[in-house]
Structures are given as C-alpha cells and as structure tokens.
C-alpha cells in the first residue's frame, strides 16, 4: 500500500496430514501450481484481481497517462486521506484496496493475493475469505488514518498483509500436524512475500502502518476461524 510522496508522483479429524491448509494446498508440482494453487474462476479472489486491473486501467485513462494514475484521480476515486475520512468520507477506508499507484504496485499485490488467497479461500469458503480480505484492508486503512492522517494511501497490500498474517498464524497453530513437504512449501511461499514486503515497508512511499494493521487483523482471524472449525490451537 503506497503513501507518502504520491503527492509527488485437531478436535476435528483431518483427512490429510497437511492441516490446516490441506484443502487448499497445491495438488501439482509445477511452478504454476506453486504460484497459483487451485486456480479457478470460481474463486472470488480471481475476480477481485480482475476488478483491480480494470480499475487501474480506468484510473490511467482518467489521468490521460497509460503508465500511472495521477494523484488527483486517485484522490477522486477514494484514496485514503485522514482529514477526508474525519469529514465522513468513510468509503475511503475501503476503496483504496482497489486502487494502485503504478503497474509494479498492482502486479506485486495481485501475485501475493492470488498465491495466498487461493489457498485460504479454498479451505474457508467464499464468505469467510471476503470478510478476511475486506476487514484486513479496512483495519489497515483505519490505522493509517490514525498514525499518518495527512498522507494519501492506495493499494491492496493492507489486505495482502492480512493474508500473510493469516497464513503465518495458521501454519504456526498447526505446525506439528504438517508434513515435511507442506512445511517446506508454506515456509518458502510465505517467506518470500514477508521478506519482500518488509523490505518495501521501510520505503518512504509505503504505508507501514497500513501493513501492520492488515497483518494483525489477519492473524486474529486465523485464530478465530480455526477455533470455530474445531482445530486444536
């Protein structure tokens, strides 16, 4: 989620030992299967990604710039901005998860969302996934408006960090029940995104507090969902 100088440019018996992500773990061994596990047009995260691409193209067209949308257009379309939120523009806590500052920003977020989101949605089903995705994004944006109220912020990485927090906590909770193959797979995938996002989070143009808010929300929901499904925590 970019900000800053945008102004300048167990109890249940599992059928597999790969608990808790067993139902969404990759079925094949190809690179594509690892990158996009259980890819299907039935997954809402795929359609969310399509929507983000369409909105990005629209924002570029409105900006008359094919490479990146302008600050004015991002503000008009609902970028997070503390003073505006305080004046009642509550939609600015939700809309930014569909807005992006440039192609690189969009692609990285979509890659993370698909890689982690397909697995989570496969197990927890559409409604629970949407709640996780949206709430993580909103909580991240709320924290941004509190800690950096005068900064513009856009991007789906608040929701992306929610998926990262969810995945890390779920793996931790079920570590003893995971096979070696599953451990290696999830450690590799999650570590790549964590290291990358930690690296970019310290850039002056990245919304650090939005990432923290999304991560904490995702971690909390991982505990809640697994307890509700009857896994030993």
From TrEMBL:
It is an enzyme of class 3 (hydrolase). The chain crosses the membrane at residues 44-64, 103-120, 127-146, 152-173, 185-202, 208-225. The keyword Nucleotide-binding does not apply. It holds the Pfam family Rhomboid. Keywords: Hydrolase, Membrane, Protease, Serine protease, Transmembrane, Transmembrane helix. GO terms for molecular function: serine-type endopeptidase activity. Residues 88-223 form the Peptidase S54 rhomboid domain. It is a multi-pass membrane protein. It catalyses: Cleaves type-1 transmembrane domains using a catalytic dyad composed of serine and histidine that are contributed by different transmembrane domains. One of its GO terms (cellular component) is membrane. It is found in: Membrane. GO terms for biological process: proteolysis. Its EC number is 3.4.21.105. It comes from the Eukaryota. Gene3D superfamilies: Rhomboid-like. Belongs to the peptidase S54 family. Serine protease involved in intramembrane proteolysis. This is Rhomboid-like protease.
């Amino acid at each position: 989620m970019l900000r800053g100088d945008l102004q300048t440019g167990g109890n249940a018996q599992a059928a597999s030992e790969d608990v808790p992500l067993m139902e969404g773990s990759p079925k094949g061994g190809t690179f594509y299967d690892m990158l996009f596990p259980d890819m299907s047009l039935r997954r809402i995260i795929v359609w969310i990604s399509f929507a983000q691409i369409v909105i990005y193209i629209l924002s570029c067209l409105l900006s008359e710039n094919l490479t990146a949308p302008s600050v004015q257009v991002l503000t008009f379309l609902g970028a997070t901005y503390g003073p505006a939120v305080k004046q009642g523009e509550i939609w600015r806590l939700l809309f930014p998860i569909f807005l992006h500052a440039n192609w690189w920003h969009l692609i990285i977020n979509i890659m993370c969302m698909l890689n982690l989101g397909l697995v989570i949605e496969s197990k927890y089903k559409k409604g629970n996934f949407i709640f996780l995705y949206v709430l993580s994004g909103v909580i991240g944006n709320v924290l941004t408006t509190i800690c950096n109220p005068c900064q513009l912020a856009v991007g789906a990485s608040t929701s992306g960090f929610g998926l990262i927090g969810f995945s890390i906590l779920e793996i931790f909770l079920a570590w003893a029940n995971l096979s070696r193959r599953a451990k290696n797979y999830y450690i590799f995938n999650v570590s790549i995104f964590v290291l990358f996002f930690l690296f970019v989070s310290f850039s002056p143009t990245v919304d650090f507090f939005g990432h923290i808010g999304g991560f904490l929300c995702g971690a909390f929901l991982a505990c809640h969902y697994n307890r509700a499904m009857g896994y030993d925590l």
